[in-house]
Amino acid sequence: MGGLLKIEDDRKRRIELEAYLDRGRGECHLRRSEVARLVEGALCSGHGLDYDLRAWAVMPNHVHLLFCVQDVPMWRSVDAWKGYTAKAANKILGRQGAFWQEGYWDTYMRDCQHEARARHYIENNPAKAKLVALPRQWSWSSARFRDAYERLCLPAA
Predict the structure, then answer these.
(1) Do 55 and 65 touch, CB atoms closer than 8 A?
(2) Which residues, at least 6 apart from 50, have a Cβ–Cβ distance to it below 8 Å?
(3) How far is CA 150 from CA 38, 55, 58, 87, 146, in A?
(4) Residue 104, φ and ψ in degrees, nearest 5
(5) Distance between alpha carbon 98 and the CA centroid of its chain, in Å?
(6) Cα separation of 151 and 51, whole Å?
(7) Predicted model pTM
(8) Which region holds residue 48: left if phi is over 0, alpha if psi is between -120 and 50, else beta?
(9) 32-67, pLDDT tens digit by residue?
């Protein structure tokens, strides 16, 4: 029974965290286009090399990312993104100190349907947070790169 209560507590905590973030709480350095562009570029730079990028949304105060690891462990890719973007973003912002919260929240994708739901959630997050009317309108999301068949069509680097 204790395990079930923990699952419910984790689910409730995640729902509350998502609502907090959707209200634009905390520092919103990613709202600045040059910082969001930097983060998106860093995420896209490893696509096809270290991982297979499936979906993302750079929100004003957090980032959603869906990717399939290849030869590089997930923690190493996340550390690389966070390290590079923290230094560069702090330079843009003229600040020092921690830019990202420690750690990250990951979820194992059980099957194609689970991944499709996760992609839908990620790409719809800007509209859910009322930042845009349609997901494709958000400048820092993979939604704008979907074709008529919902395939991700990234521009050549």
Answers:
(1) yes
(2) 69, 70, 71, 72, 77
(3) 25, 11, 19, 34, 5
(4) -160, 165
(5) 18
(6) 17
(7) 0.84
(8) left
(9) 999 999 999 999 999 988 899 999 999 999 999 999
